[in-house]
């Protein structure tokens, strides 16, 4: 939804129209951006996002637009690949169009990677490394990790956390906190942020921290959190959970409103 809103706003600025282009208008004016995707109702939202991102990248092929399209195609392909496995007894052409959408995704993702081999865009550098094991892209990314384009981007802070967790857990925690600090109001953080913090704090026997973020995870709707063992560790040592419950609620609210501050001292 955020990707679609961003694309539509960009299209509005690009075209100078009073109203943003509609999906139907894009497909009418540039049918080649739509005809090689699935033609049924599956993956409707992801398909729409990809079409609008394709149009914007077609009009203005910057690295930022290529990055948005790359992410859009990955989400679309995850959906359409699953849908392509569904057999239609009477409507075989639906399955065929989904396969076509999957093949288009592979082709377009490959094209974007080829087009951006020499990129300095942090998001694309991360994708080149994480998807293609491009070590030179990782080296480039690490040389710019202190630049605002990385430090002020929640997504990039999370991406770096997935790298540093292998050998620097303290820095990983800092990066995850920074990710939450950059979370915009009413935006839902990646669930892995909470599960990773719980796991790291539990591993280092910081049970108050682990419990607090386990409760925040539950408030966020995450169910695969083992909070019982953490509760046992705290209650066995005579700790009260009431204050931590309150802290969790306050912290959750601060994240939801975009006012979270790194709680390194609690």
Task: Supply database-style keywords.
mainly alpha, 68% helix, 266 residues, 14 helices
State the shape: elongated
**In percent terms, what proportion of residues is strand?**
under 5%
What series of H and E elements makes up the topology?
HHHHHHHHHHHHHH
Structural class by secondary-structure content: mainly alpha
Number of strands: 0
Share of helical residues: 55-70%
First CA to last CA: what distance?
Answer: 35 Å
Mean pLDDT: 90
Oligomer: single chain
Summarize the biggest pleated sheet: none
Low-pLDDT residue spans: none
- By DSSP (H or I, 4+ residues per run), the number of helices equals 14
User: What is the rounded Rg?
Assistant: 22 Å
Pfam family, one: DUF2989
Organism: Pseudoalteromonas neustonica
Protein name: DUF2989 domain-containing protein
InterPro entries: DUF2989
Could you explain the architecture of this structure?
By secondary structure, the chain is mainly alpha-helical. It is 68% helix and 0% strand. The protein contains 14 helices and no strands. The longest helix has 24 residues, at 92-115. The radius of gyration is 22 Å and the shape is elongated. It starts with a helix and ends in a 10-residue tail after the last helix. The mean pLDDT is 90. Pfam families: DUF2989. It comes from Pseudoalteromonas neustonica.
Short description:
This protein is mainly alpha-helical. Helix content is 68%, strand content 0%. The protein has 14 helices and no strands.
List the helices and strands and how they pair.
Layout lengths: L1 H14 L7 H7 L14 H16 L3 H22 L7 H24 L6 H11 L2 H9 L4 H4 L2 H11 L4 H13 L9 H13 L3 H13 L8 H9 L5 H15 L10
Helix pairs in contact: 1-3, 3-4, 4-5, 6-7, 9-10, 11-12, 12-13, 12-14
